[in-house]
Write a structure and sequence with these properties.
Number of domains of chain A: 4
Distance between the termini of chain A: 31 Å
Structural class of chain A: alpha+beta
Radius of gyration of chain B: 17 Å
CATH architecture of one domain in chain B: 3-Layer(aba) Sandwich
CATH class of one domain in chain B: Alpha Beta
Largest sheet of chain A: 6 strands, mixed, barrel
Strand content of chain A: 15-25%
Oligomer: heterodimer
Largest sheet of chain B: 6 strands, mixed
Radius of gyration of chain A: 33 Å
Strand order of the largest sheet of chain A: 3-4-9-6-8-7
Distance between the termini of chain B: 29 Å
CATH superfamily of one domain in chain B: P-loop containing nucleotide triphosphate hydrolases
Strand order of the largest sheet of chain B: 6-7-8-3-9-10
């Protein structure tokens, strides 16, 4: 090994504490990159592989009742390779011990001779025997939640008829990787599942003999999905088909896509923050190191080493630090990625969801780390190497301090000497102080980015479940019922108040834009369900006209006062005109809101309703729910308290792990920056500080000079970090699919305080570590040594 | 005033150097002519600030003059070509500094190896250290060596490449007399045994007695240039 290589290794050993903190920051960046990107890659690969293997459809369509002969027409459409026509319905499940009814989507298994799309993956048991009408397959999520095994029985209420079903097997389908009950925000595996049954059994139950109400099509590679959709819509128009949709609008596929998009956004933003801080640290530490190495660099030059050899030597410090960070980061990233994917596996039911850090991602992580190191080192090394050797051999000229405007202020003169030294140091190198402050501020920003989702979800819960909803139970019907149903429910014992609701699917058309949406009709005097916007304002529904979600309106290029055409997606009702009264910043989905009577005028079916919101006497609630369970017309009874608990649990679990990981990472940044800063200041100014000690300053006073500078930087960093945190949160909010869910940008005071507290704690820890060194300062040795 | 008996290895012609130190401008050299003859041991004598170190740095290709030229074996050094200067130092020049300038993280042997790693036909580090009498201290770090020992390591490092010129800047400046004599003895031996042209900068007039030739410096100029008729052995020097 060459003497220079030995010097490198020994230098690294000497600087290990500082280099280790840099390597750790680097490792966090690489870990964030590798874990999120690999989780992204793995999730995407698992999804794409499964979609391909299981022949997941490209176009989906739902129809009231179409004759099976239409399948031939669909199959003959240009670009269509396969068609699977099915019977799909919602059923109620009577699960033992559950007061409110559970529900399930029931899907017919492929008929003999039909193309088999959405091939099921059996995870337990066997396929359904075509000879047994009472056999079913149960989705794994529901089976797990109820501990159902092959051979178990479940009671279903199919179209009002109670039926005992036998579980033949447990299965997964690409169509239901994410199972959410229509209208719910998060999966509730105990209350909603999926069943697959023999087509014959469902034909009878849903009166679909010789017909179908749902079709899935696969489109030839290269063919236009949009063109196929239009052709499908035209073909099925005579049977009141709802407009077909593609994968981008498929409920399960869309949620997965959103998660994948979010991961990609996180995998871009967060590692970039860490690597930038790491590069800054490398720059700071190397600048200092090279400052101390001035004479040694000159000696090496005098000995005949070329600039290139010397530059390589010092760049190697950065590169080896970067490499250590990269290797640690890859290891941490692999573990973290597994953790992230583990959380996804709780929401998304894939047959195989293997975590695999791809070589490309690992290489990207290593290159990013090395790149950040070199970038950080380049300037410092270039500057050090460019000094003429004779100049470097002379002691550096005393740092240039000038009397600044600060000094003319009488207040500054009144300050103790230590404070004046701190102020002048900051004034002399404002850019360096600012750079450090920015680096520390990023730690606060990352902390906020990690925690704000809790705040946002809390706000959603508050708005959606407390301000908008005042009911205890919402009873939904299988299909629209006469308005008298609300009166019937109101008369039940324990019901204090009952309010009707109507939800209707609609297609809004404005100029060339069309959008599917839900119209929600509420009574004029509604108190159990109100329209509340993202800012918490309660909206009064206009007597005539429509309130539209702002996101939906923008997609339709609509403004308040515009007229919009409301079409019946099933084509039964003729198109009608409605006026947009105002735009509302609503939180969920794509909806229009109007008064129940206004919706009646559009629907023209005698004021039918689809749900009733109930305020209930808490002591009689359970009895009421048991009673509702046997009403054949009732599809589900949603309890507000249960919904809130589920929402918190499901989303909290995911955000919790993320917040924890990011808090750890942010602490590393804060410690890395403050510790390195203080160490650098200490080594650059040890002579000055020792002189102060000799002059009779106490250890505390000397520490104050050194740490005061760090404290000033932290003080500057905190407000900066809070602003950046809000910005970063805004960036992450935008990665959420706005048509599904609009995460409000809310950062609570607690989150800000948390960020400030972590940064202060990390700074205090670093200060304590450095303070120990100040205390140990050897006055005599420092003064004896040459500058 | 150069010595005609020995052909010059290194020659300075009308050298001038002005540099800034903080806010102050310093005229370190004001027109210096000097030639170092082959195998000659020259002592450059003068008070601090007289320009000796600046001259040495320019002769060694560490610094560029503001005016004038330097010729190595008749060829002018190109001070604008950093690469050529590095090659010149690498092949021909050995430096010894007042504060030794050893790498604290390297042992004595490794400090010498810094040079032998890059020189074309060097002595072995052990051989160079034997020359300065440090065979028993090969694997000691600078912090484990006395000042005199550190300076001898620095000399071993300088001579290990078999330089044509050895430039020593106050080699005894940081040492007590007894240790200083040991170091001077080493320099004298290197000059005699290897025939290395040697220039020693000092402000200590006693040291001048061991030289072939003494060049006096004052205020950036050569103020005298004399030859010793008899040379004292380093062991005889007292200050």
């Amino acid at each position: 090994m060459s003497a220079l290589a030995r010097k490198l290794l020994r230098d690294l050993a000497r600087e290990r504490a500082q280099l280790a903190t840099i390597a750790l920051v680097m490792a966090c960046g690489v870990a964030a990159l590798v874990s999120m990107r690999s989780a992204y890659d793995s999730l995407r690969a698992a999804r794409d592989g499964w979609y391909a293997r299981a022949r997941f459809g490209d176009v989906f369509v739902s129809v009231r009742r179409a004759p099976r002969s239409a399948v031939t027409a669909l199959a003959a459409l240009p670009g269509v390779t396969d068609v699977d026509a099915r019977v799909v319905g919602e059923v109620r499940l009577d699960m033992p011990g559950l007061d409110d009814p559970a529900a399930a989507k029931v899907v017919s298994l492929p008929r003999a001779g039909m193309a088999s799309l959405h091939t099921l993956t059996l995870t337990q048991g066997r396929a359904v025997d075509p000879a047994h009408a009472d056999e079913c397959l149960v989705h794994e999520a529901f089976a797990r939640a109820w501990n159902l095994r092959p051979g178990d029985g479940i009671t279903a209420v199919i179209q009002g008829r109670r039926q005992r079903l036998r579980v033949a097997g447990v299965a997964l389908s690409p169509e239901f990787a994410y199972v959410v009950q229509p209208g719910a925000l998060v999966p509730d595996d105990r209350r909603y599942g999926v069943l697959w049954m023999n087509p014959g059994a469902l034909d009878d139950a849903f009166a679909m003999r010789g017909a179908f109400n749902d079709a899935v099509l696969r489109v030839e590679r290269g063919a236009s999905v949009r063109a196929v959709q239009s052709a499908v819509d035209r073909t099925l128009a005579p049977w009141s088909a709802v407009a077909s949709w593609d994968r981008a609008h498929h409920a399960s596929a869309r949620w997965i896509e959103m998660k994948i998009t979010q991961l990609r956004a996180q995998a871009t933003v967060l590692p970039a923050v860490f690597l930038a801080v790491a590069a800054l640290l490398v720059n700071m530490v190397l600048t200092r190191l090279l400052g101390l190495e001035r004479e040694r660099i000159a000696t090496l030059k005098a000995l005949g080493y070329t600039d290139g050899e010397i530059a390589r030597h010092y760049l190697s410090h950065a590169l080896l630090t970067g490499l250590a960070g990269a290797l640690l980061g890859v290891a941490l990233g692999a573990a973290g990625g597994r953790l992230i994917l583990g959380i996804f596996a709780q929401f998304f039911r894939f047959p195989v969801l293997a975590f695999w850090p791809t070589p490309a991602t690992v290489a990207l992580g290593v290159c990013a780390s090395l790149g950040a190191s070199v970038l950080g080192a380049l300037h410092a090394v270039r500057r050090a190497v460019s000094i003429a050797p004779a100049e470097a051999m002379r002691p550096a000229a005393p740092a240039r301090y000038t009397r600044s405007r600060l000094d003319t202020s009488a207040r500054v003169h009144a300050l103790p000497a230590a404070a004046r030294m701190v102020l002048r140091e900051l004034a002399r190198r404002p850019l360096r102080a600012l750079g450090s402050a920015v680096a520390i501020s990023l730690a606060a920003a990352v902390l906020i980015a990690g925690r704000f989702t809790f705040d946002a979800l809390d706000r959603v819960i508050e708005l959606q479940y407390f301000r908008a909803q005042g009911d205890d139970v919402t009873v939904s019907f299988r299909e629209p019922v006469a308005p008298a149903a609300a009166l019937d429910l109101a008369r039940l014992p324990g019901v204090l108040r009952a309010e009707s609701q109507r939800t209707a699917a609609a297609r809004l058309r404005h100029g060339a834009h069309t959008r599917e949406c839900a119209l929600l009709g509420l009574p004029a005097d509604a108190s159990l369900r109100r329209l509340v916007d993202a800012h918490g304002a309660v909206w009064t529904l206009p007597s005539d006209g429509l309130l539209l979600g702002r996101d939906l309106a923008q997609r339709l290029d609509l403004r308040a006062g515009d007229a919009v055409t409301v079409e019946d997606p099933t084509g039964v009702l003729p198109p009608r005109e409605a006026r947009v009264s105002a735009l509302v910043d609503d939180l969920l989905g794509t909806s229009g809101y109007l008064r129940l009577d206004a919706l009646d005028r559009l629907q023209r079916d005698g004021g039918r309703i689809t749900a009733v919101a109930l305020r209930v006497d808490p002591t009689r609630r359970d009895a009421l729910l048991r009673r509702l369970k046997v009403y054949p017309a009732v599809a589900s009874t949603a309890r507000r308290a249960t919904a809130i608990a589920y929402f918190r649990e499901q989303l909290g679990r995911e955000s919790g792990v993320m917040a924890l990981i990011l808090a750890a990472f942010a602490s590393v940044i804060a410690v890395g920056v403050v510790y390195n800063n203080a160490r650098i200041a200490l080594s650059v100014r040890s002579r000055e500080l020792a002189t102060l000690r000799v002059l009779g300053f106490t250890r505390a006073e000397v520490s104050a000079v050194l740490l005061g500078e760090q404290a000033a930087q932290v003080a500057l960093a905190i407000p900066l970090g809070l602003l950046e945190g809000r910005g970063l949160a805004g960036l992450l909010v935008r990665s959420v699919d706005a048509e599904l869910f609009r995460l409000p940008l809310v950062v609570s005071r607690a989150t800000y305080l948390f960020a400030v507290a972590v940064v202060l704690a990390a700074s205090a820890l670093s200060a304590a570590l450095v303070r120990r060194r100040v205390d140990a300062l050897d006055m005599v040795a420092v003064l004896k040594s040459r500058d | 005033m150069s010595d005609v008996s020995r052909p010059p290895v290194l020659e300075a012609r009308a050298l001038a150097k002005r540099y800034r130190m903080g806010d102050v401008e310093i005229d370190a050299l004001r027109g210096v002519d000097l030639a170092l003859g082959e195998g000659e041991l020259t002592v450059l004598l003068g008070p601090s600030g007289s320009g000796k170190s600046t001259l040495l740095n320019i002769l060694g290709g560490l610094d560029a003059p503001s005016a004038g030229s330097v010729h190595y074996r008749g060829r002018a050094l190109d001070f604008t070509d950093d690469r050529a200067l590095t090659a010149y130092r690498r092949a021909h020049v050995g430096f010894v500094f007042q504060f030794y300038n050893l790498m604290p993280s390297l042992t004595a042997r490794e400090n010498v190896a810094l040079v032998t790693d890059i020189a074309p036909s060097p002595l072995a580090p052990e051989e160079a250290l034997a020359l300065v009498g440090l065979t028993s201290r090969l694997d000691h770090f600078p912090s484990q060596l006395s000042g005199g020992e550190q300076q001898r390591v620095a000399i071993a490092r300088a001579v290990a490449r078999r330089p044509d010129v050895l430039l020593c800047d106050e080699p005894t400046g940081a040492l007590d007399q007894r240790t200083g004599v040991v170091v001077l003895d080493v320099l004298d031996r290197v000059n005699r045994e290897l025939g290395t042209t040697t220039a020693i900068i000092t402000h200590n007039a006693v040291i001048a007695r061991m030289a072939h030739r003494v060049v006096g410096f004052g205020d950036g100029r050569v103020v005298r240039d004399e030859r010793n008729t008899t040379r004292a052995a380093p062991a005889e020097l007292r200050w």
